[in-house]
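User: I'm new to structure prediction. If I give you an amino acid sequence, what do you actually give back? Let's try with this one:
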Amino acid sequence: MVGGGKDAFIGAVHRIASRIDGEFELVAGALSSTPERARDSGVALGLDPDRSYGSFEEMAEAEAAREDGVEAVAIVTPNHMHAAPAIAFLKRGIHVICDKPLTATMEQAEELAAAVAGSEALFILTHNYTGYPMVRQAREMVARGDLGTLRVVQVEYAQDWLTEASESKQAEWRTDPARTGAGGSIGDIGTHALNLACFVTGLTLDALAADLQSFVPGRPVDDNANMLLRFGGGARGMLWCSQVAPGNENALRLRVYGETGGLEWAQEEPNHLWYTPFGEAKRLLTRGGAGASAAAAAASRTPGGHPEGYLEGFANIYLGAAQAIRAARDGSRAEVLDLLPGIDAGMTGMRFIAAAIRSSKANAAWVEP
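Assistant: Good question. You get back a string of structure tokens that encode the predicted 3D arrangement of the chain. For your 369 residues, that looks like this:
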């Protein structure tokens, strides 16, 4: 693991998710931005001192030279420190599992994309909401034609934790353009919203018109965004992301409507999927319940009525990564890769951020990502 020291929220999430199915073991790390803190975190997490490194460069070189060196690395640093570590490990044939968004800048993203193209190692981006069972069921239903030709896609991701200026560690780097990139809420949660919409619908974003705001005085990145979306094939949509919406904790919600039906899913009630065939009663489909699909069942661990959520959805990304890595050992390609966000999803997110900023500066003009 690179980043994600003992006190880091997202590092703990990755470690738990990687272990839920017993597929990964944490054996090495460069866990902080300074050698001292990195080694302290390594001790706290039980790493062999010889494999607790002061920098990702040191770790990549040393682990690549070991017969028992790491097979994969999780990169859980702030956005500006995604590209360099990922490239260092990819060049040495070590698989990379990286937090989102892809990078802080388009230049970094293009360098990383070139490294992925030039490596035989896998690159997996942790857009973790694609791992929820009912999200995968929704994707399966859309692909099967249960909604007919798609017409409308509405997606929103609202939080309130940045309603006021904050000096917390999480807020500090997420509102610093040097570390998070030019996009604030659009990079942090807007990319999740777009990725979820595209994952479920299979649609490609053709154009957007965006209106970005920084409501908190002095904040150098956006904290709220409203967008109109045009998708390939004629579907239309709207995306709202906000981190200044009091009363919202982690309110990611998707609604998809086609000629013959509609679907609704909300992250805070992840085990429920609402399906309405046109002209019929609204139906509640539940994870593990009657009507659950094969895709949902494959992503579930407990019987229906036993709630699964954020950690289990995240774990499905790691489970898929393990399956893909095992297939790569044999020189084959695992089908699960079709469900795992990778470099293409990452580049889509980066182009989305750039297009939203460009559109907003042009008075919400329509632009192509």
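You can read the tokens as a compact description of the fold. Here is one thing that stands out. DSSP finds twelve helices and twelve strands in the chain.
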